[in-house]
Amino acid sequence: QVQLVESGGGLVQPGGSLRVSCAAPGVMFYSHCMGWFRQSPGKERERVATIARDSSRVNYADSVKGRFTISRDNAKNTVYLQMNSLKSEDTAVYYCGTNIIPRDYWGQGTQVTVS
To answer: Do 63 and 77 contact (CB within 8 A), yes or no?
Structure first.
């Protein structure tokens, strides 16, 4: 059974930093690309960052480029999102996700509030 468990969200002041983590026990973690997504009230879920299986490629939404860094530790089955220079518009529920054919999998989300 695929399970993704996010942690590390919280309240931070504008300009501050936060790191969120996503653990994926029981998954062949090293076989799958991973991503971070976020959703604010009244808005659709949006992609924040993705990382290849071997970390060789990363991609970021324009809104977070230069401020956020995605990374992964395949030995720990964990993917991270380091968020720096946080802005109020970064406030959202952050989800990690992956696609294991034929469907997408999501964690329960972790709230990040910048205020």
So the answer is: no
